[in-house]
Amino acid sequence: MSQYSSVKRVWLVIGTSSGFGREFVKSILKKGPEEKVIATARNIQKIEDLKQLGAHTLQLDVNSDEKTLKSVMEQAIGVYGRIDILINNAAYVLNGTIERRVRKRLSICSIPMCLDC
């Protein structure tokens, strides 16, 4: 029998340092110990309290290069052996002209968060 056989679902919530992401994690954890959460944020110190509530925490900046994103995804999958639900709640601000902002935004949106899953 697997160490995590009683796990109902494994949630990966990206962008949990404040707002909706933080509240998603708290709400999921209230469902009970069979619901597992992996919470990510650019600044892992900002989600230390979520770790105390039972979430597994990882540092993730969605603006990172593809190699880093893949490494974090592998770490996330390695925590419980799977990810059942992804909530991509990360946000960021782009500065510059509209032409540059649109190009940068499109390049980030087209990089899949789950590389080779």
From TrEMBL:
GO MF annotation, one: oxidoreductase activity
InterPro entries to which the protein is assigned, alphabetical: NAD(P)-bd_dom_sf, SDR_fam, SDR_oxidoreductase
Keyword Nuclease found: no
Alphabetical keyword list: Oxidoreductase
Cross-referenced Pfam families: adh_short
Family note: Belongs to the short-chain dehydrogenases/reductases (SDR) family.
Protein name, entry field: Uncharacterized protein
Species name: Naegleria lovaniensis (Amoeba)
Classification of source organism: Eukaryota, Discoba, Heterolobosea, Tetramitia, Eutetramitia
